[in-house]
Amino acid sequence: MKPSDQIQLTDADKARYEKRITEIDLNNIPMVVKSIPVKIERLIADPGLLDYQIALVSDISKLLNVLLELPEESVTLKKRILFALEYFLEEQDEIPDNDPQIGLLDDYVLVRWVVDNIMADYTVL
Predict the structure, then answer these.
(1) Secondary structure (H, E, C), 11-41
(2) Gap between the Cα atoms of 60 and 40, Å rounded
(3) Pairwise CA distance, residues 42 & 26, whole Å
(4) Rounded to two decimals, what is the model's pTM?
(5) Coil, strand or helix: which one is 73?
(6) Structural domain boundaries of the chain?
(7) Rounded Cα distance, 97 and 91, in Å
(8) Three-class secondary structure of residue 92 per DSSP
(9) Interval 15-62: pLDDT, tens
């Protein structure tokens, strides 16, 4: 079993994060847009990236592109994406990012949760 399969968000985690999403300040978008590429470049410079870390970088890149393309009135979606991006940027989150094996695992799980929610909310059948 991969480490990325072992960590899951609890209902309490999801409720806490949903509350934090409502409190996101969209004025932080320029800072996040500037900071994300720097962290991604630092990560991809590591030749030993794990599969979940590669997937995380891909998801973060996609979320950043979606955020930049959203119309002004998409406030709720922007907040959800910005929350995931800000969490990714936070070095001292629930699992500090400086651990090379598991440091980004919480980021991966949280970002996947956000991506999955967006897909569920905006997928047209």
Answers:
(1) HHHHHHHHHHHHCCCHHHHHHHHHHHHHHHH
(2) 9
(3) 25
(4) 0.92
(5) coil
(6) 9-122
(7) 5
(8) coil
(9) 999 999 999 999 999 999 999 999 999 999 999 999 999 999 999 999
